[in-house]
Amino acid sequence: MTELLMFLAVTLGMALCVAGVVVWVLLRQGPVVTSASQSQANVKVYREQILDLDREHANGHLSDAEWQQSRDELSVRLLQDTAVEDEPQLITQAQSWRTAVVIALVFPISALGLYIWLGAPEAISPMPPASASAEAATEQAAPPNLDQIVENLASKLQADPNNLEGWVLLGRTHRSMGNLDAALSAFDRALKLNADDELILARAEVLAAKNQGRFDGEPWRVIREVLQRDPQNYAALLLAGSASYANNRYADALEFWQRARLRLSADHPDVPNLIEAMSTVQAKLKNPASPSSNPPAQGAPSAPASGNAASGATPAAAVASAAGGAASGLSVLGQVRLSSALKSQTSPTDVVFVYAVPANGERMPLALLKTTVAQLPLSFTLDDSSAMLPDRKLSGVSQVLVKARISKSGNAIPQSGDWEGSLGPVKVGATGLDLEIKTQRP
Fold first, then answer.
1. Are 359 and 400 in contact (CB under 8 A)?
2. Which of 77-81, 292-296, 321-325 has the lowest mean pLDDT?
3. Over the range 247-280, which residues count as b (16 or more CB within 10 Å of their CB) and which as e?
4. Is residue 125 situated within a structural domain?
5. Are 205 and 304 in contact (CB under 8 A)?
6. For 436, left (φ over 0), alpha (ψ -120 to 50), or beta?
7. Could you give phi then psi for residue 352, rounded to 5 degrees?
8. Is the dihedral of CA 335, 340, 341, 342 positive or negative?
9. What is the CB-side half-sphere exposure of residue 14 using CA atoms within 13 A?
10. Does 207 share its domain with 114?
11. 135 and 3 together in one domain
12. Mean pLDDT within 337-365
């Protein structure tokens, strides 16, 4: 007999013993003497009547003579009614056969079942050999098999194809393993479930990695679109810096990374790497003749190395391009205000976008400012310092349309129901503009 069976047999025997004691108590039969009698009932009644007399006397409803007389009468009657003691009564309790049978069967079975379910029967078995313990410890200490993890995750996603977090995790895992095609496929499935900007940027980064660090084409287009929707998107700013660096546009890379740095607190873990990347770019700007193939500082957040970057503008040209708007001093100045009829239809926290677009019909802003209704009326200046993209600046055109829009959702993309105002075309360099928000988008 094994140790487990022996333990279970002993446990069952002890449970049967306890159940036997309980059953014996339930089944034994004997008279029970009860002291309940009529005389005791009479005593209780008279005591209550005497208490009532005492209360009436205390409340002044009975005189001393009346109270004493009534009390004496009750005492005499009490003695008469309790003069003869009643015989004790014997009560025979019925045997609890049904309860006894239930306890005899259920108690041992339940105790044994609960132990098997909640206990640890395997702990009763003897300790495994030392070699077996060593093998188990080795298995636990072994690093996880990424291939097996990916295979298991892919199997789960086949059964649950709408698991967004699962597809994102699968894409990131493939990316870390260098399986770029598989990573793209996983991100594509995730984007079908949720076209989030962060996922769009993650996919663009994989595309750039697949293209040997080049952001030409779709990756750069995606970054621009995200920045158009959200000019302060941290991940987009990081990738825009990487894309600019890959094209040897160091001044633009520095500008993007500086804007990204402003989004971080002083103790953010990305700050040291980001500062190191900016220092590398600044060194290149001071020495334009340095080799363009050197990547940014290793570990720069979301800034993949661009060892095979395409040759673009020279560093000197990049500096000139970045400084062009500031040197010319070209800007558009004015005041934006809210129509008095709209004050009751807006909230002080509603987001206000003030921006300039080319007069030729292009819709992507050349410069943009973001504020709230609470700040209106507001004096504004649109120039190259408020450019959304370094290669699209206000100083590069002669005429623009100046617009303002109130968005309750805070979305940079115009939506139905937004309130707007527009002026133009006006020449770049115009001042004293009066822009009123008064029209609602259909």
1. yes
2. 321-325
3. bbbbbbbbbbbebbbeeeeeeeebeebbeebbeb
4. yes
5. yes
6. beta
7. -120, 130
8. positive
9. 8
10. no
11. yes
12. 89
Q: Is 60 exceeded by the pLDDT of residue 385?
A: yes
Domain count, the chain: 4
Residue 364 is classified by DSSP as: S
State whether 224 and 246 are in the same domain.
yes
Whether residues 361 and 277 fall in one domain = no
Shared domain check, 99 and 78: no
Can you tell me the mean pLDDT for 235-264?
87
Cβ(399)–Cβ(366) below 8 Å: no
Average pLDDT of the chain, as a whole number? 74
Give the global pTM: 0.39
The residue type found at 419 is W
| Residue 175 lies inside a defined structural domain of this protein | no
**Distance between CA atoms of 96 and 86, rounded to whole angstroms?**
30
User: Could you tell me which residues are beta bridge partners of residue 423?
Assistant: 402
Taking the alpha carbons of 230, 233, 237, 238 in that order, is the dihedral positive or negative? negative
Q: Are residues 347 and 397 in the same domain?
A: yes
CA–chain centroid gap for 64, Å, is 82
Domain of 54, in residue numbers: 41-84
Mean pLDDT of 261-277: 81
144 has a pLDDT exceeding 50:
no
Terminal CA-to-CA distance of the chain, rounded, Å? 85
- Give the amino acid at 128: P
Q: Are residues 23 and 132 in the same domain?
A: yes
pLDDT range class, residue 423, cuts 50, 70, 90: very high
Say yes or no: 8 and 111 in one domain: yes
Interatomic CA distance for residues 360 and 400, integer angstroms:
8
Q: Residue type at 222?
A: V
Would 378 be classed as within a structural domain? yes
Q: H or E element: which one contains 200?
A: helix 197-210
Whether 165 is covered by a domain: the verdict is no
